[in-house]
Amino acid sequence: MKHEWRKQQKNLYISGQKPELITVPEQKFLMIKGNRNPNSEDFSNRIEVLYSLSYAIRMMPKQGYTPEGYFEYTVYPLEGLWDLTEKGRKLDTLDKDELLYTIMIRQPDFVTKEIVDRAFENVRKKKPNPLLDEVSFDTIKDGLSVQILHMGPYDDEPRSFKKMKEFIEENQLQIVTLIHREIYLSDARKVEPDKLKTVLRYNVKRI
To answer: Which of 20, 66, 87, 154 places its Cα 20 to 30 Å from the Cα of 100?
Structure first.
């Protein structure tokens, strides 16, 4: 049976429009860093290289190599860790040119560095991309987190962040870092802005 993250891991991805407290386990990611406005060609190119590698891993059995522990699965959604430069933090309004980010795609647990190296080789042969040199493979453990499903344009996210911060205060929690995570359940190229679904998440601790 094909592993569908939307069904088998609902608690991590199919959140409600009310804040909730969850524990996120250690996960493996292909990731690439960037900065400035995400409405740029550079941002799109960084997304593209992550998907090229992710699909190279998923399609390995069709290329004649089946990694140990492999199972059929749906490629995980794009995620992003978002921060601001020192200058950006001091501004009263968001300047997207002051954004710092790491975008990433989760990989199944069977994926190892050796498998990732093989994916890099495949992509370099079929679709060379200078950004491949900037992609890394690592694990992240979010642990205790507060998340919410944001419905609507990305620019409207502050209203969802406000709900999260109220929930955090009411439940004697504290935000660990101002860097927040976004998980994109919709393709912004195909979905109207008011129908976009994005999971927003803060790392928290109890106080």
So the answer is: 20
Give the amino acid at 87.
K
Tens digits of residue pLDDT in 96-136: 999 999 999 999 999 999 999 999 999 999 989 999 999 99
Would you list the domain boundaries of the chain?
Answer: 5-206
Predicted model pTM: 0.96
CATH dotted code for 5-206: 3.20.80.10
Q: What end-to-end distance do the CA atoms of the chain give, in Å? A: 42
Q: Which long-range contacts (CB under 8 A, 24 or more apart) does 159-162 make?
A: 160/200, 161/200
Whether residue 145 contacts residue 204, with contact meaning beta carbons closer than 8 Å, is answered with: yes
For residue range 142-186, list pLDDT tens digits in order.
Answer: 999 999 999 999 999 999 999 999 999 999 999 999 899 999 999
Quote the CA–CA distance of 199 and 91 in Å, as a whole number: 25
